């Protein structure tokens, strides 16, 4: 009996150690499901785990985290190789309903989010060096409505929903 309990405990530790909680708040857990990002996997879409720990319903804009990001190479800031341009993305009522995440009380979902909408840097990586990305960003009502959706968010707030107010502060190892 003791061996079975110990085995379950070991699997729990192994499962949890491959994940990184990336946000600072306690109401919602945003968990990055990998222990590192493979920079060579260009077609990989990573879905974070979003877990509501309260009896409130939250509104999360997956494009609503704004802040700063940079990459360290062997512990020193790496200069970007180039910056990519991005067009202006505005949402109408239909796209707001499709884009925004509604996270119900005690619900856990898998959904891709952008850690920092401001990050437009492209880096070059070389195999022998160690890399990690530093991300510091914030999500609030203002950031959730930058691309539109103000009327839709007001409608949801009138039903008692809350816009997530939280920060992402994380160091994610990169695999060149």
Our Rg estimate from Cα atoms comes to: 18 Å
Instruction: Write the H/E string, N to C.
Output: HEEEEEEEEHEEEEHHEE
Sheet bearing the most strands, described? 5 strands, mixed
How many DSSP H or I helices?
Answer: 4
* Shape field: globular
Q: Uncertain runs with pLDDT below 50, 5 residues or more?
A: 1-16
Order of adjacent strands in the largest pleated sheet: 3-14-12-6-7
> What share of residues is helical?
10-25%
How much of the sequence lies in strands comes to 25-35%
Strand runs, count: 14
Structural class: alpha+beta
Cα end-to-end separation: 44 Å
What's the pLDDT, averaged over the residues? 88
Structural features, described:
This protein is α+β, with helices and mostly antiparallel strands and 176 residues long. It has helices at 2-17, 93-99, 141-145, 150-158, and strands at 20-21, 28-32, 37-38, 48-52, 58-60, 66-73, 76-77, 82-83, 101-103, 108-111, 121-122, 131-139, 162-163, 166-175. Strand 1 (20-21) and strand 2 (28-32) form a beta hairpin.
